[in-house]
From TrEMBL:
SUPFAM superfamilies named in the record: Helical backbone' metal receptor (SSF53807)
Protein name (database record): Iron-hydroxamate ABC transporter substrate-binding protein
Keyword Transport attached: yes
Alphabetical list of Pfam families matching this protein: Peripla_BP_2
Compartments, as annotated in UniProt: Cell membrane
Residues annotated as domain Fe/B12 periplasmic-binding: 57-306
Stated family: Belongs to the bacterial solute-binding protein 8 family.
Domain of life: Bacteria
Topology of the protein relative to the lipid bilayer: Lipid-anchor
Length: 306
């Protein structure tokens, strides 16, 4: 009886061993599958790049506001975004970095870096973490947000915001044109140290909203000199030539703004008619969802007196 039992026992051990091996293989496959799902291939403007599906430590040397709008976790930001008053609450505890400060970037242990194509040390940044670059102005302001959504694996959220924002901005534009007239012109002007700037339809300061989404008209002089280039620099004597029926004035608090006390400025029709709406330059130099929402609300209240 004992002799019969031994072969059966041996067979039972073999079966258990096989099951164990299968379980090990399954566990290995599972681990391998999980690892594969931790990254995906993002089609960047420089070609495909493997990026994390759920990045937890992002350094945004550019496009930081677009990233913030999708509630992604930023550990490093550029100095210009850090100075913007609209983003202060969202950047508490976030370090200010640049492409030159590689040691600081390494210390922050990023799992994703977003940079501008013009920046230095892109190859070195790639050695620290997957680095995706964007060329400023290559994509329109809404497509840029969708691309950031793709990068962060949040494309559906980005597309949903784009659709909703376009509808609201167009509707507000309809109401504004109905009030001020279809032929009324709007110019966006900014103060500098000894010069002024006027903007086309894609240079932030709300220009994308006013001209693209709302379809408001710019003065002929602005169209001639700023539409294609995006920006045109001029002297104070030319202010009346560039001022539309309405002026969005981007006021830089760090420069001399005493021109507003001059007879030249006070005699401009938009000034005399109280059709000048002042925005803060520092809070208006981006075209991300946070800035766009802020400016859309401002334009609605200003033009419609809401």
């Amino acid at each position: 009886m004992k002799k019969l039992f031994i072969p059966f026992l041996f067979l039972f051990v073999l079966i258990l061993s096989a099951c164990g091996n299968n379980q090990t293989v399954n566990e290995d496959n599972k681990t391998e599958t999980e690892t594969e799902t931790e990254t995906f291939t993002y089609q960047s403007e420089n070609g495909p790049i493997e990026v994390p599906t759920d990045p937890q430590r992002i350094i945004a040397l550019t496009n930081g506001p677009n990233v913030m709008a999708l509630d992604a976790n930023i550990v490093g930001i550029d100095e210009w975004t850090n100075m913007n008053p609209l983003f202060q609450d969202r950047l508490e505890g976030v370090e200010v970095v640049s492409e030159d400060n590689l040691e600081k970037i390494i210390e922050l242990e990023p799992d994703l870096i977003i940079a501008g194509s013009h920046m230095k040390n892109i190859n070195k940044l790639n050695e620290i973490a997957p680095t995706v670059v964007y060329t400023w102005g290559k994509l329109d302001y809404l497509t840029q947000q969708t691309e950031i959504g793709k990068l962060l694996n949040k494309e559906s959220e980005a597309k949903e915001w784009v659709k909703d924002f376009k509808e609201r901005a167009e509707s507000t534009g309809d109401a504004i044109r109905a009030k001020i007239g279809e032929d009324a012109t709007v110019s966006v002007i900014e103060s500098g140290n000894k010069e002024f700037y006027v903007f086309g339809n894609n240079y932030a300061r709300g220009t994308e909203i006013l001209y693209q989404a709302m379809k408001l008209k710019m003065p002929d002089k602005v169209k001639e000199l700023a539409l294609e280039s995006g920006i045109y620099t001029f002297s104070s004597e030319m202010l009346p030539e560039f001022a539309g029926d309405y002026v969005i004035f981007s006021k830089n608090p760090d420069v001399d703004n005493s021109f507003s006390e001059t007879i030249l400025w006070k005699n401009i029709p938009a000034v005399k008619n109280n059709h000048v709406f002042e925005i803060d330059t520092k809070a208006s130099t981006y075209s991300d969802p946070i800035t766009l929402e802020y400016l859309l609300e401002f334009f609605e209240k200003s033009f419609l007196n809401n």
